[in-house]
Specification:
alpha/beta
Length: 208
Protein backbone atom coordinates (compact mmCIF):
# COMPACT_ATOMS: atom_id res chain seq x y z
CA UNK A 1 0.00 0.00 0.00
CA UNK A 2 1.33 3.46 -0.92
CA UNK A 3 1.50 5.83 2.04
CA UNK A 4 1.41 9.61 1.73
CA UNK A 5 4.82 10.85 2.78
CA UNK A 6 5.13 14.04 4.77
CA UNK A 7 6.01 17.21 2.90
CA UNK A 8 8.91 19.62 3.35
CA UNK A 9 6.93 22.55 1.91
CA UNK A 10 6.43 24.33 5.25
CA UNK A 11 10.08 23.94 6.25
CA UNK A 12 11.32 25.12 2.85
CA UNK A 13 9.12 28.21 3.05
CA UNK A 14 10.57 29.08 6.45
CA UNK A 15 14.11 28.62 5.15
CA UNK A 16 13.38 31.06 2.34
CA UNK A 17 12.34 33.52 5.04
CA UNK A 18 15.73 33.16 6.72
CA UNK A 19 15.23 30.53 9.39
CA UNK A 20 18.15 28.08 9.54
CA UNK A 21 17.32 25.55 12.26
CA UNK A 22 13.68 24.48 12.10
CA UNK A 23 12.46 21.91 14.60
CA UNK A 24 9.46 19.63 14.47
CA UNK A 25 7.92 18.41 17.73
CA UNK A 26 5.26 15.82 18.51
CA UNK A 27 4.13 13.74 21.46
CA UNK A 28 2.61 10.29 21.95
CA UNK A 29 0.72 8.62 24.77
CA UNK A 30 -1.94 11.20 25.56
CA UNK A 31 -4.82 8.74 25.44
CA UNK A 32 -3.24 5.84 27.31
CA UNK A 33 -4.30 4.38 30.64
CA UNK A 34 -0.72 3.53 31.56
CA UNK A 35 2.83 4.62 30.92
CA UNK A 36 4.42 8.01 30.27
CA UNK A 37 3.77 10.65 27.68
CA UNK A 38 6.79 11.05 25.40
CA UNK A 39 7.70 13.99 23.19
CA UNK A 40 10.42 14.23 20.57
CA UNK A 41 11.93 17.24 18.85
CA UNK A 42 14.17 17.06 15.80
CA UNK A 43 16.03 19.47 13.54
CA UNK A 44 16.61 17.77 10.20
CA UNK A 45 19.45 18.64 7.84
CA UNK A 46 17.77 20.39 4.89
CA UNK A 47 19.84 18.54 2.29
CA UNK A 48 19.43 15.06 3.84
CA UNK A 49 16.12 13.53 2.76
CA UNK A 50 14.89 10.44 4.58
CA UNK A 51 12.68 8.31 2.31
CA UNK A 52 9.55 6.94 3.93
CA UNK A 53 9.05 9.50 6.68
CA UNK A 54 5.32 9.83 7.35
CA UNK A 55 2.89 10.14 10.24
CA UNK A 56 3.95 7.42 12.68
CA UNK A 57 0.34 6.20 12.94
CA UNK A 58 0.43 5.27 9.25
CA UNK A 59 3.57 3.14 9.61
CA UNK A 60 4.06 -0.38 10.89
CA UNK A 61 6.21 -0.95 13.99
CA UNK A 62 8.86 -2.44 11.70
CA UNK A 63 8.82 0.66 9.49
CA UNK A 64 9.20 2.94 12.50
CA UNK A 65 12.11 0.95 13.90
CA UNK A 66 13.81 1.01 10.49
CA UNK A 67 13.33 4.75 10.11
CA UNK A 68 14.48 5.63 13.65
CA UNK A 69 18.26 5.41 12.93
CA UNK A 70 17.79 6.97 9.49
CA UNK A 71 16.14 10.01 11.10
CA UNK A 72 18.71 10.37 13.86
CA UNK A 73 21.55 10.21 11.32
CA UNK A 74 19.81 12.89 9.22
CA UNK A 75 19.32 15.19 12.20
CA UNK A 76 21.33 18.22 13.18
CA UNK A 77 20.12 17.28 16.67
CA UNK A 78 17.22 15.39 18.22
CA UNK A 79 15.91 14.88 21.74
CA UNK A 80 13.16 13.06 23.58
CA UNK A 81 11.48 14.00 26.86
CA UNK A 82 9.50 11.69 29.10
CA UNK A 83 6.84 12.67 31.66
CA UNK A 84 5.86 9.87 34.01
CA UNK A 85 2.42 8.58 34.93
CA UNK A 86 2.80 10.12 38.40
CA UNK A 87 3.52 13.54 36.89
CA UNK A 88 0.60 13.13 34.48
CA UNK A 89 -1.67 12.58 37.49
CA UNK A 90 -0.19 15.61 39.23
CA UNK A 91 -0.33 17.99 36.25
CA UNK A 92 -3.14 16.53 34.04
CA UNK A 93 -2.43 15.02 30.65
CA UNK A 94 -2.63 18.24 28.64
CA UNK A 95 -0.13 20.06 30.84
CA UNK A 96 2.11 16.98 30.95
CA UNK A 97 2.13 16.84 27.14
CA UNK A 98 3.04 20.53 26.92
CA UNK A 99 5.80 20.01 29.48
CA UNK A 100 7.26 17.11 27.53
CA UNK A 101 7.27 19.11 24.30
CA UNK A 102 8.86 22.16 25.94
CA UNK A 103 11.55 19.99 27.50
CA UNK A 104 12.30 18.28 24.20
CA UNK A 105 12.56 21.58 22.31
CA UNK A 106 14.68 23.41 24.87
CA UNK A 107 17.12 20.48 25.06
CA UNK A 108 18.02 20.84 21.37
CA UNK A 109 21.52 22.07 20.55
CA UNK A 110 21.50 24.44 18.81
CA UNK A 111 18.15 25.85 19.84
CA UNK A 112 15.91 26.13 16.79
CA UNK A 113 14.93 29.46 15.36
CA UNK A 114 11.44 28.18 14.58
CA UNK A 115 9.34 25.26 15.85
CA UNK A 116 6.59 23.41 14.01
CA UNK A 117 4.16 21.82 16.47
CA UNK A 118 1.61 19.12 15.80
CA UNK A 119 -1.82 20.37 16.78
CA UNK A 120 -1.63 23.23 19.23
CA UNK A 121 0.52 26.13 20.43
CA UNK A 122 2.95 25.54 23.29
CA UNK A 123 2.60 28.26 25.95
CA UNK A 124 5.69 29.87 27.50
CA UNK A 125 7.94 28.90 24.61
CA UNK A 126 10.26 31.81 23.79
CA UNK A 127 10.86 30.55 20.25
CA UNK A 128 8.76 31.37 17.20
CA UNK A 129 6.31 28.54 16.57
CA UNK A 130 3.49 27.46 14.30
CA UNK A 131 0.89 24.90 15.37
CA UNK A 132 -0.24 22.76 12.44
CA UNK A 133 -3.41 20.68 12.62
CA UNK A 134 -2.51 17.23 11.29
CA UNK A 135 1.10 18.33 11.28
CA UNK A 136 2.48 14.80 11.36
CA UNK A 137 1.01 14.34 7.86
CA UNK A 138 1.92 17.81 6.55
CA UNK A 139 5.46 18.42 7.82
CA UNK A 140 8.48 16.13 7.49
CA UNK A 141 10.02 17.54 10.68
CA UNK A 142 6.88 16.84 12.71
CA UNK A 143 6.47 13.39 11.14
CA UNK A 144 10.09 12.55 11.99
CA UNK A 145 9.49 13.69 15.59
CA UNK A 146 6.36 11.54 15.77
CA UNK A 147 8.39 8.47 14.77
CA UNK A 148 11.12 9.15 17.32
CA UNK A 149 8.55 9.68 20.06
CA UNK A 150 6.51 6.58 19.15
CA UNK A 151 9.51 4.25 18.94
CA UNK A 152 10.90 5.56 22.23
CA UNK A 153 7.58 5.12 24.02
CA UNK A 154 6.95 1.66 22.57
CA UNK A 155 10.37 0.55 23.80
CA UNK A 156 9.57 1.89 27.28
CA UNK A 157 6.28 0.00 27.33
CA UNK A 158 8.03 -3.22 26.34
CA UNK A 159 10.39 -2.67 29.29
CA UNK A 160 7.38 -2.19 31.58
CA UNK A 161 5.93 -5.44 30.24
CA UNK A 162 9.15 -7.25 31.15
CA UNK A 163 8.80 -5.93 34.71
CA UNK A 164 5.11 -6.88 35.00
CA UNK A 165 3.68 -9.03 32.17
CA UNK A 166 0.15 -9.26 33.60
CA UNK A 167 -1.21 -6.32 31.60
CA UNK A 168 0.18 -7.00 28.13
CA UNK A 169 1.92 -3.65 27.73
CA UNK A 170 4.03 -5.11 24.92
CA UNK A 171 0.87 -5.55 22.83
CA UNK A 172 -1.31 -2.48 23.46
CA UNK A 173 1.38 -0.08 24.79
CA UNK A 174 -0.96 1.16 27.53
CA UNK A 175 -3.98 2.00 25.39
CA UNK A 176 -7.46 0.99 26.52
CA UNK A 177 -7.89 -2.22 24.55
CA UNK A 178 -10.32 -4.85 25.76
CA UNK A 179 -7.59 -7.16 27.05
CA UNK A 180 -5.95 -4.26 28.89
CA UNK A 181 -9.24 -3.30 30.56
CA UNK A 182 -9.86 -6.94 31.45
CA UNK A 183 -6.41 -7.16 33.05
CA UNK A 184 -7.01 -4.02 35.10
CA UNK A 185 -10.36 -5.41 36.19
CA UNK A 186 -8.59 -8.60 37.30
CA UNK A 187 -5.44 -7.17 38.90
CA UNK A 188 -6.22 -3.53 39.67
CA UNK A 189 -3.72 -0.79 38.96
CA UNK A 190 0.00 -1.27 38.57
CA UNK A 191 2.56 1.45 39.40
CA UNK A 192 2.63 2.26 35.69
CA UNK A 193 -1.07 3.19 35.55
CA UNK A 194 -2.37 6.74 35.63
CA UNK A 195 -4.67 7.08 38.62
CA UNK A 196 -6.40 10.10 37.08
CA UNK A 197 -7.56 8.02 34.08
CA UNK A 198 -10.66 6.26 35.38
CA UNK A 199 -13.23 5.13 32.78
CA UNK A 200 -16.37 5.03 34.99
CA UNK A 201 -17.80 1.95 33.31
CA UNK A 202 -14.82 -0.10 34.42
CA UNK A 203 -13.25 1.44 37.50
CA UNK A 204 -16.13 2.54 39.72
CA UNK A 205 -16.11 -0.88 41.36
CA UNK A 206 -12.33 -1.33 41.53
CA UNK A 207 -10.66 -0.86 44.88
CA UNK A 208 -7.12 0.36 44.17
Amino acid sequence: MTRARASRTVENDLRRRGYVHIAGVDEVGRGCLAGPVVAAAVILQPDHYVPGVADSKLLTPEDRERLFPDITRAAVHWTVAIVSADDIDRLNIHQASLLAMRQAITSLVPLPGFVLVDGFRIPDLVIAQRPIIGGDRRSTAIAAASILAKVTRDRLMIELHAQDPRYGFDRHKGYATRDHLDAVGRYGYSPAHRRSFRPPSLFDTIDD
